[in-house]
Structures are given as C-alpha cells and as structure tokens.
Amino acid sequence: MILETTDKQLQERQESLNKDYKKKLESIKEYSDRLENDLKTQFDAQLEKWEQNFKGYEQQLTGILEEKARLDLDKQRLNAKKQAFENHMKQREEEIKEENRNEIERLKKQKSDLHAQLDEMANETSALRQKNRELKEKIDWQKDYDREKLERDNRDLEQCKEDLLAANENLKNRIQELENEKNKLDPRDERIKELEKEKRELEGIRAQKENAEQKYNTLSVHNKLLEAELNMLNENLKKLKKNRYAGVEDFEKRQKNIKEQIVKTNPKVLGAPSNEVEELAFLERIEKGMQEFNVFYPKRLLYMFHTALKSAFLSPLSVLSGVSGTGKSELPKLYVHFGGLNFLSIAVQPTWDSPESLMGYFNAIENKFDATEFLRFFIQTTLSKDEKEYGLKEAMSIVLLDEMNLAHIELYFAEFLSKLEIKRSKETNISIKLGTSLTWELPLGDDLLFVGTMNEDESTKMLSDKVLDRAFCLNFERPKTLKSKQQKSLPSNDGYLKAETFNRWINKKGDQEAKLEGKYKKLTEEINERLDARSIGHGVWQSMSAYMHNHPLVLHVFDKDKALQFAYEECLVLKIFPKLRGVQTRNNQHLTKIQDLLKDFSVSSDFKQAMENDFNQFVFNSANYLNNSEYEKFSKSSL
Fold first, then answer.
1. 205, 259, 314, 364: which has the fewest Cβ within 10 Å?
2. pLDDT classification of 422: cutoffs 50, 70, 90
3. Which residues form a coiled coil (predicted)?
4. Domain spanning 269-296+314-482: which superfamily?
C-alpha cells in the first residue's frame, strides 16, 4: 500500500515536473522570441539611423554641388566683371592719355602688379600639382591598406565561422546531455536546481550563437563590399597597365609624326662650318657685312648685343625695345646671317596665353600633336646632324620673339624662363605635353639663344620686374633723321658658327673680379640704396658682372680699366635704367643723387634727358652714349 502511494506520488511529481519543464521551455521560447524581436528592433533602428546618415550625406553632397554651381556662377560673373573692367581700363586709358600722361604710367604700374599676381597663380598651380601627386600616393596607400584589411577581415571571418561551428557543436552536445539528464531525472530538488542552472547556461550559449551569427552576417556583407572594391581596383589597375603600354606606343607615334612634320617643311640643313676662331674678327665680319648691305649700327650697339648673348647663362633673354621702325628686328637678323648662326623669327600673337601657344597642341580628332614652327626648330637644335640630317646642334641658333609684349611673356614663355634659370647650375629639359598625359622631355642646350623685340606703344604690355631681372634690355633711340630704304639683297653665307667656338668665347671665371668687387660693386651698391622700391638683387649684379667679364673690349684690349668703365656704363643701361621707368622725377632726391654718381660716365646725358620730360616721370628713350666719340677712338686704337 505504501509502495502504491509512493509510486503515485512519484508519478504526480513526475507529471508536475513535466508541466514545469514545459512551462519553462515555453518561457524560454517566449524569452528567445522577445530577444529576437528586440535584436530585430535594434537592427531596424540602427539601419534607419544609417539610412538617415546616408540621406544627410546626400544632402551635404547636394549642398556641395549647389555651392560649386554658385562658385562657378560667381566665377563667370567675376570673369564678366574682369572683362568689363579691362574694357573700362582701355577706354579710361584713352581718356587719361588726353588729360594727364602721368596717369598712364600709374596704370602700367597696376599692370605690373597683375604680373605679380600671375606669378602667384603659377605658384598656386604648382602647389596644386604637388597636392595631386600626394593625393595619388594616398590613394595607392589606401588601396594597399584596404587589401590588407580585406585579408584580415577574411581571416577573422573564417575564425568566427570556425568558432560558430564549434559553439554550435557544443550546443548540440549540451542539449543531448540535458536530454539524457532529463531521462535520468533525480527526484531531489538539488538536481532540479542544477538543471535550471544548466538551462540558464543554455540560454547564454544560445544568445552567444545568435550574436555570432549576426557578426558572421555583418562580416559577410562587409567582405562582399571589400571584394567588390578590390575587384574595381584590380580593373582600374588593369586599365592603367593597358593605358601605360598603349601610352608608350602613342608616345612613339606622336614623336615620329612631329619629326615627319619637320621633314615636310623642308628644314634647314647644316653645310660646312666656318673657320672663324677669333671673336673680334667675327664681329668685324658682321659689321662689314652690315655696312655693305647699307645698314649702319653703332659699333657699341653691336658689341652690346653680342655681349648680352654671351651672358645668356645668367640673363637668358635679350630684349630690344624702342618705337616701331628703328631696326630692332633687323639687328638680330643681320647678326645671325653674317655671323653664320641659325635663325627663327616668330611673330607673337595677342592671344597667346599658355606654353601651348608657343609649342603646339594635341589634336584629339586626328590623334596627333600639331607642332608649331618654334617647336620644330627647337627639336632641330637638340639633334646633331649625325642623328638626323636636319640636326642643328653643332651650330649656334637664335630664336627671335618679335613684338614679344603683345601678350604676357610670363604666360607663354614662363617654362623657358624658369628652365633657363635652372640651367645655370645643372642640365635641364623642356617638357612638351603631347596629350593624354604623355610628355616629351627635350634637353635645353647651350646652342640656343633667345632674343625679343618690343614696341613701346599703347597696344603692348609692359615687362614685369621678374622678366627685367632675367633679361638685358637694349633701347633703340628714336631716329633724328629719316632715311629711305636702300638695301641690297643678302649675300650667301660662308658657313655656320660652331657652338663650341661661341661657347669658348664665353668667360665664366671672372678674371677682373677684384676690380669689379672694388670700384664698380661699391658704386652699384650706392645706386641701389637710392632705388627705393625698384632696388636690385644679387641676380642682377651677377648678370652685370658676367656681362663685364665677357665684353670684347675687356677681354681683348690692353687698357682694361677703360674697357671696364665702358662695359659698366652699358650695364647701367641694360639692367638698372629699365627698372626706373615710370618713377616720378619731380623733387625726387634719390634720382638726383644717382645723377650725381653718374656725372663722370658717358650715360649721364641720357640719364638727365630721361628725368627731364613733360611727363615728370623717368622715361629712358635716348641713346646718346652709343655715339660716344671716345668709345669709337678707344675701340679702334686698342684693337
């Protein structure tokens, strides 16, 4: 009876435990469902937050695009205002020209300031190019970083997957153990507590499983994104490699096409070299040839032009200025003809606003580079006649930029000015942009010289201080008597002047340095103290020193002191006086003191005349010093 009662109690207890177990299982399921709903709610909230952020980014992008459009519109308005301002300035110049000549020079000073702004813009462009290179390096670094991160994430993903599988396996084993324990249920309460504890552990394991699954899903999505990005980068890399190989082929084709353009234009071919070895004999031959051609230049002007060309290693540009019809273009033309140099004259156009105006442009329709006459000639000077039959490298060559100030020289000739300055200390190249990121590097040699002419009228632009400091400026005076043109035809040339001969005449050592460092450097420093805002720097004095060292009279006459004085006078005309243009002369004590310093020089009368005019501004347009009788006697008696 007792056993039956006990069995009955056990049975009832068993049923009670089963009911409790079912209730707890249902409770666990409800908790699991609730937890799943909570996680889903959190995920949906996070997803909504991400979508809101994305919309915010889209709004920011829209704002940026609107700002860009506004800036573009402002730029157009500014360009329109600038154009209107330039038109107004031209009209105002005509009005001021009738009312007050002084106002014209003030406007020219404003133009000089605009040149300085252009220099700043060029520097900013260079900085942007540097920033672009840095950005490219950053992109390459980011690409490598993303690749490494993808590999790390893949490893983490695999590890997470393995951990998840292990946890799942442990969970299965634990469930099986619990089922076994359930079948062996101990009637004691302690065992029930242990089961409940194990159930809680089971819930924790299940939560870990869900977290692991969620992390696995997140990593899977991220992995797919990284794989897509990696595929895109690989495609871009393939395109870059393809473009690089295609670029080499295009580069060679465009080079070949330009050389074919040279051949089609019937280029000059070097004949036999001249036997000229003596510098003074060379100059005498040129002077005699000009006179036989009924063209007469003062000997001093010829010597100045020749010395300026020899000093191009420090001041690479020789500028011939004056009113139209004074023989500015004729001097270099006859110099190269009777001297045996190669020559190219280029008419500068007012529309020139970039180096491409001088070099040429890439023709995308025909996939070729349309080279200008200058570029074709420049390529000839980089090749020897052994490399190409049209090569001119063995001979000296001159390029004449005729009416160079019709456009801003800083825009179309900036790279040459910069590279010619670099060439003082090391070899350098000129970069020719052949299109689609292809660049042809051409060496800038010592066999090529640059000369420019500029008319002084209202249609031209003044040279900035940056250009003046890098140039020798020869002024051609207004003719006192007008003559009819009675020229003959040019005779044939006897041979070309070898570049090695001309470069052998150049003196870079400075044999008269001690004398220059004494008297003439001190005098230049005294003048510089009175130049105020127009003062000169080290580069100007170095150019003056090089000019004096290379003057034919200084190199080849016995009386060096007198020759140095004449050479220094010419340096004042070439380097100092051009910087004074436009300075107010009325009650200007600085100019008066400079005039006192120059009283013993033959240029003193020209300096005085530049100060005494109706404009009350320094305007140097005379050249009395060229007809100095003492210079003529000295040059004839000393040679």
1. 364
2. confident
3. 18-243
4. P-loop containing nucleotide triphosphate hydrolases (3.40.50.300)
